[in-house]
Amino acid sequence: MLFNSLEFVIFFVIVFFAYYKSYNNLKFQNALLLISSYVFYGWWDWRFLSLIIISSISDYIIGSLIDKSNNKKQRKKFLILSLLINLGILGFFKYYNFFAESFSDFISVFGFETNPFLLNIVLPVGISFYTFQTMSYTIDIYRDKMKANKNLLEFMTFVSFFPQLVAGPIERASHLLPQFGKKRKFDVYEFKEGAKQVLWGLFKKIVIADNCAFYANQIFENSDSYPGSVLVIGVILFAFQIYGDFSGYSDIAIGISRMMGIDLMQNFKSPYLAENIQDFWRRWHISLSTWFRDYVYIPLGGSQVDSSFRRSVNIIITFTVSGFWHGANWTFVIWGALHSLFYFIQTFYSKQMKTVKILPSNLVKTFNIIITFIAVTFAWIFFRAKSFNHAVNYISEMLSSSILANPTSHFKGMGSSVMPFVIVISLVYLLIFEISNRDANYSFQVGHFKAPYRTLIYCSLLLLILFFRATNGPIDFIYFQF
């Protein structure tokens, strides 16, 4: 069930009214959310509900066992059991074929031919998100950062909460779980603010992402047929496609939750206005980047280790694992590794710039934002490409002399003549709000505009959403595949 579908609108209206009709009965509210979440997920494939239930019940039990035990070795054994269950399920469905094929390719280098046994399995939607969410629960209990939850209904609702179930934000139990233990009443202000954020998320998804995807998909799927100038435009369009798509999903999820009295963490904060790679990851997919920081980078030693070499290794591992989390393909591994390379270049560059203070600070800041955007966009080629060879060929042609070719003629046969204009206007719209809300807690705030302008903004967003939703129909979110 997609957020941008008519089925979801009907589903949410029914759930919303039933939810607030029972505001005096917390147990019923949570039961309603749990059942609704299972319906929402099962709408895609009910068979994979068993995986969510297994993760929920196993981590609920193991979390309690860790919490009750005072024996350090026993607590560690329970934690390892939790990690084996969660990573075992994730690894089986997401990475089994990748490792089988990679092993076969590796030993073939030494002259051994094998026919790897591959599984014809479907990747369950959202498995990477809810698996990481439940893992953080048992890890935090093991670290004595929180106590185990004693209410199974509340815990299962926390794991399966439908707005953020299939694509995040990846919430920490310490933040989200206690909210299911408190009564939630209808709040007019939160409802309005949530509805505004849903509107902004739908705009980013339907108007920006889906229209950019129309061209980006054609260019990437037929990259051999286009000159470098078109390929440059293609990767830029993909950069805005994936941002509009994923941040749009997060905005909708956060907005829906606010309407229901639940607070979710901010997941995006104007990432394309970042001044360096480190700043980019403070702004892009914040719930995932902080997860890897707290549960991978810091346990490895983080930046507290004495050796600069060890610190560099920690950074490389964290970025590479983050890339691998996104998909079972070497392109994602390279994408993550590229970000670690950019991080080291940025660190060296920053040290050099401290000794040079000739240029105005605003000019340096603008230059840094542009360079960071170029680096991030270049890395998106590996993220989007079907294979390593596809990415290399794409880059080779993009950086060839054909980068100077006139791209205009190649777009005439792709779609309507109006669509490029709509994309440009939409991106300008996006840029204005990104700049004005660069350091805001939420990505859509128009309170600083006068009332007539606010009304005009809301109406224009709604009209564009309705027009392009009717034109394109509901299109899947990119991160459903992760």
Automatic annotation (TrEMBL):
Keywords carried by this UniProt record: Acyltransferase, Cell membrane, Membrane, Transferase, Transmembrane, Transmembrane helix
Signal sequence, renumbered to the chain: none
InterPro entries, A to Z: Ac/AlaTfrase_AlgI/DltB, AlgI, MB_O-acyltransferase, MBOAT_fam
Membrane topology listed for this record: Multi-pass membrane protein
Domain of life: Bacteria
Major subcellular site: membrane
Compartments reported by the entry: Cell membrane
Transmembrane annotation, as ranges: 5-23, 43-66, 78-97, 117-139, 226-244, 332-350, 362-383, 417-435, 456-480
A Pfam family reported for this protein in Swiss-Prot or TrEMBL: MBOAT
Protein family: Belongs to the membrane-bound acyltransferase family.
Name recorded for this polypeptide: MBOAT family protein
Species the sequence originates in: Flavivirga spongiicola
